Every structure is written in structure tokens, then in C-alpha cells.
Amino acid sequence: xxxxxxxxxxxxxxxxxxxxxxxxxxxxxxxxxxxxxxxxxxxxxxxxxxxxxxxxxxxxxxxxxxxxxxxxxxxxxxxxxxxxxxxxxxxxxxxxxxxxxxxxxxxxxxxxxxxxxxxxxxxxxxxxxxxxxxxxxxxxxxxxxxxxxxxxxxxxx
Length: 157
Fold this sequence. Notes:
Elements: H1 2-5, H2 19-32, H3 47-59, H4 63-68, H5 75-85, H6 88-91, E1 93-94, E2 97-98, H7 101-110, H8 117-125, H9 131-154
């Protein structure tokens, strides 16, 4: 029973202070559960998948937010409402300068190690437009790499 109370990541604070990390975590976990499409506009997901996504999203909201969005029944509508309430992406600033998605993507690409220039070019060519998309792909690649290393260590050539 104690495991049911555990969250996969920190719930969205009612003040919205952790909105950016919450969005990234929520998208990654929804994608991992094959529910990522439920928050996109004009999706064709089943009512069962939408219900699963709503349960997951609501489970990761502050209690005050749950009561505020109690009437919302669709994950895509809830996602848009939360995005509008905490529109931090447009107000993200560094020393008075607005930071765009392109700036965040470029920062990630520029932090690749010099020995991984080819890998950096391959990720650039995939044409990511959202920071969260790139982070999700890098997260999956990291998980796959860790699994490969574990397999190699358990059965060396």
C-alpha cells in the first residue's frame, strides 16, 4: 500500500515554481507508458488511454490544483489549461533576455563532448523543435546505453 503513495516524480506545485521540470517529467513518463499522444491536439487515442493519462496527470498535481481542475475530463484539455496557467516557456528569462526553444536546443547540442561530434550532428539533423522532445530522446538513448553496458559486463566478449 505504501508503494501506491509514491510518485514517479515531484507533483506540480500550486505556485508553478517547478512547472518546467514537471512538464518534462510528465511528458517523458507519458511517452514511456505509450500515452504521450493523449495530450496532443486532434489525437485519436482511445477513451481508455485518455482516462489512464488523466489519472497519471492528476496523480502528479498538488491537491489545490486537483480541486481547481476537477471538472476537466480530457488530458489534452487539462494539459492546455495547465500550460496557459503556468506559461513559463514564454517568460523564461536569463539576465533580462528571453530564452527560446532554439536557444535551449543549441545549449544542449553545444554541451556534447568533442569526441561525440558525429552524434551531435545526427541529433541536429533530426530537426528537433522542442527541448522536451530532445531531452526525451537523449533519456531513452542513455537508458539503452546503460542496458548495453550491463549486458556487456555480464557477458564480456
